[in-house]
Specification:
The protein is an alpha/beta fold and 290 residues long. The protein is built from nine helices and 13 strands.
Length: 290
């Protein structure tokens, strides 16, 4: 008998699928290659009382993933919001935040940046300044302390399937444990089901905030490759570029050395942030995007 369920944990080729009666079943994909992500709705059948095989993935609303020239790494499926966690310390990488925002833009996923450890008041102004360009572009930024007022994030999560991403050390795990008191127990249960002995940051895991709100925690990132994006998609993913696209003299303008480049003119006029433009050129200069 074919069953339907949602993938609530993904670790390599091992998955935990939550069935309609809320029971959770360890599953493996059919075949050698797996394209299953945490958050996927799947069809499966049981191969034993305590194990199943995933036969098919239902059409997705979205798929958030990163890639380099060799492979893709799936992060989460069917999310409608990305929550990018930065912190006053340790220092966060602006480039990683930019890349995560680009990935979200390509999937029509809403974005929220959380600036954690805002109780470190001496470090807060510098962290704010590093996010100022994103604030000017209209990206929402919520300042909080995961230790003290994680609940202030809850209204922004209401009614969404949100995926939590960020560098290691930004406080994602603390945030999850404060928002979901049973998260630690749930993670241990999943690790046992996967027989991995791993803790929460080694695999993606979906938690229920309520019947309509879900949070997917993902492993800490040190990079966010975008090798799968072509130049046109990349251009469109910088929201501040959109008013100027198509206005360059040359149709295939690379926005680097060409004369009469509308983007470079906007940059010179202060209408595009220099740091963001430099990030674009770095990404566009990758061989796979040329």
């Amino acid at each position: 008998m074919m069953l339907r369920g949602r993938v609530v944990a993904a670790h390599g080729r091992q998955y935990v699928v939550e069935l309609p009666d809320t029971t959770r079943l360890p599953c493996f994909p059919r075949g050698k290659k797996s394209e299953v992500a945490c958050g996927d709705w799947v069809s499966l059948h049981k191969t034993s009382p305590d194990q199943g095989v995933i036969e098919a993935i239902e059409p997705r609303r979205s798929l958030l993933y990163r890639s380099n020239e060799f492979r893709q790494k799936l992060i989460a499926a069917n999310a409608d919001q990305i929550v990018i966690v930065a912190a006053c310390e340790p220092v966060f990488f602006e480039d990683l935040i930019t890349r995560a925002l680009i990935a979200a833009e390509t999937q029509d996923i809403a974005s929220l940046i959380v600036l954690n450890k805002s109780d470190l008041t001496t470090l807060l102004p510098a962290a704010r300044a590093r996010l100022a360009a994103l604030a000017r572009l209209g990206y929402d930024i919520l300042e909080l302390s995961a230790q003290n007022d994680a609940a202030s994030l809850r209204p922004a999560l209401q009614g969404h399937t949100s995926v939590l991403v960020g560098q290691s050390g930004m406080g994602k795990s603390t945030l999850v444990n404060q928002l979901i008191p049973g998260a630690g127990a749930a993670t241990r249960e999943i690790s046992t089901a996967l027989d991995s002995g791993k803790h929460t940051t080694t695999h993606a895991c979906l938690y229920h905030l309520d019947a309509e709100s879900h949070l997917i925690d993902s492993p800490g990132l040190q990079e966010f490759g975008l090798a799968h994006l072509d130049r046109q998609t990349l251009e469109q993913s910088f929201r501040e570029f959109r008013p100027w696209l198509g206005q360059c003299r040359f149709r295939n303008c690379r926005h680097d050395q060409e004369p009469d480049c509308a983007l470079r003119d906007a940059l010179a006029a202060g209408k595009i942030d220099a740091g963001r433009f430099a990030s674009f050129l770095r990404l566009a200069g990758q061989a796979s995007l040329s």
